[in-house]
């Protein structure tokens, strides 16, 4: 592949996605969070797999995630792309690490690693799948564990 499709270019795409999506989460901007999602998409943790078919479902999950983050008084979400590669010109796969920070101090839960598939759509890269290697009371774990499809009706 050309430099346009190098690992470095893939990492830049993923890090930009992580930074912008994380900023939208901290701001509680649900509409902006939804703009980073391709439909259908999959969210998965060790305890639960959720197939998200529309914006109503994702809005419910995103609202619950923002509530969890706020409940922990998180002031920064630090995400770092660990590895990224182009699968084709419109698909990037990556692993990344997430840490939650409150007032300059890392929260006690361990950072967790995730796997994401991004697809180029319209004006941006959007996630079509996210797998979180997380458990316990981390916001991603709690939301996927406790989310109920009836929350969208």
* CATH class designation: Alpha Beta
The helix fraction, in percent, is 25-40%
Structural class given helices, strands, pairing?
A: alpha+beta
Q: What's the count of strands?
A: 7
* Spans where pLDDT lies below 50 across 5 or more residues: none
Order of helices and strands: HHEEHEEEEEH
Question: Sheet bearing the most strands, described?
Answer: 7 strands, mixed
Radius of gyration: 15 Å
Query: Which percent range describes the beta-strand content?
Result: 35-45%
CATH topology description: Nuclear Transport Factor 2, Chain: A
Relevant terms:
Nuclear Transport Factor 2, Chain: A, 153 residues, 40% strand, 4 helices, seven-stranded mixed beta sheet
What does this 3D model show about the protein?
The structure is a single chain. The protein has about 150 residues and is of the alpha+beta class. The chain has a single domain (about 5-150), classed as Nuclear Transport Factor 2, Chain: A (Roll). It has four helices and seven strands; from the N terminus they run ααββαβββββα. It has helices spanning about 5-25, 30-35, 55-70, 140-145; strands at about 35-45, 50, 75-90, 90-100, 105, 110-120, 125-135. Strands 1, 2, 3, 4, 5, 6 and 7 form a seven-stranded mixed sheet that branches. A hairpin with a 2-residue loop joins strand 4 (about 90-100) and strand 5. It starts with 6 loop residues before the first helix and ends in a 7-residue tail after the last helix. The relative contact order is 0.21. The model has no long low-confidence stretch (mean pLDDT about 90).
């Amino acid at each position: 592949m050309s430099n346009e499709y190098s690992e470095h270019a893939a990492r830049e795409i993923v890090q930009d996605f992580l930074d912008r999506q994380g900023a939208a989460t901290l701001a509680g901007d649900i509409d902006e969070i939804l703009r980073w999602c391709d439909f259908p998409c999959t969210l998965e943790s060790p305890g639960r797999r959720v197939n998200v078919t529309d914006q109503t479902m994702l809005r419910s999950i995103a609202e619950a995630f923002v509530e969890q983050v706020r409940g922990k008084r998180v002031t920064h979400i630090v995400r770092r792309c660990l590895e990224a590669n182009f699968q084709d010109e419109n698909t990037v796969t990556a692993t990344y690490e997430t840490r939650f920070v409150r007032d300059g101090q890392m929260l006690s839960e361990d950072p967790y690693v995730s796997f994401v598939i991004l697809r180029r759509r319209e004006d941006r890269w959007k996630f079509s799948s996210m797998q979180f290697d997380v458990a316990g009371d981390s916001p991603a774990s709690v939301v996927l564990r406790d989310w109920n499809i009836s929350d969208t009706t």
